């Protein structure tokens, strides 16, 4: 898995940068939208197959899988990122992004840890967190001037 990630990381970054330059959209926002879709495609497919069975336990398992994947991906990636910034002495310029990730991860983790089964209506606020986190980063960066 690590070798595949290393092999495809550079072409993926080049593609994101090229698309960002062509569309005049900051590369962070392009990466924030497309990278999770690419890296979690297998979980998406298995979640859809579980949900198609339309049984309460299967749909609950789908929500649990999504909650676990989101929480694990965010905490693992954030930990690696913070470790790299610290060990390499890099300039910190990501306060708004980290704030949005921490708030979203805390909310999803608290929600996922508080139940064994999940009603369908809970998917709407959880799905809404994704565009809200992107909007909050844009607001913090562009309106409040966070960096």
UniProtKB/TrEMBL annotation:
InterPro entries: CaH_exchang, NaCa_Exmemb, NCX_ion-bd_dom_sf. GO terms for molecular function: calcium:proton antiporter activity; metal ion binding. One of its GO terms (biological process) is calcium ion transmembrane transport. It holds the Pfam family Na_Ca_ex. Residues 3-135 form the Sodium/calcium exchanger membrane region domain. It is a multi-pass membrane protein. GO terms for cellular component: plasma membrane; vacuolar membrane. It comes from the Eukaryota. The keyword Ion transport applies. It is found in: Cell membrane. The chain crosses the membrane at residues 25-45, 66-86, 98-114, 121-140. Signal peptide: none annotated. Its main location: membrane. Keywords: Antiport, Calcium, Calcium transport, Cell membrane, Ion transport, Membrane, Metal-binding, Repeat, Sodium, Sodium transport, Stress response, Transmembrane, Transmembrane helix, Transport. The keyword Ion transport applies. PANTHER family: SODIUM_CALCIUM EXCHANGER MEMBRANE REGION DOMAIN-CONTAINING PROTEIN (PTHR31503:SF36), VACUOLAR CALCIUM ION TRANSPORTER (PTHR31503). Belongs to the Ca(2+):cation antiporter (CaCA) (TC 2.A.19) family. This is Sodium/calcium exchanger membrane region domain-containing protein. It comes from Selaginella moellendorffii.
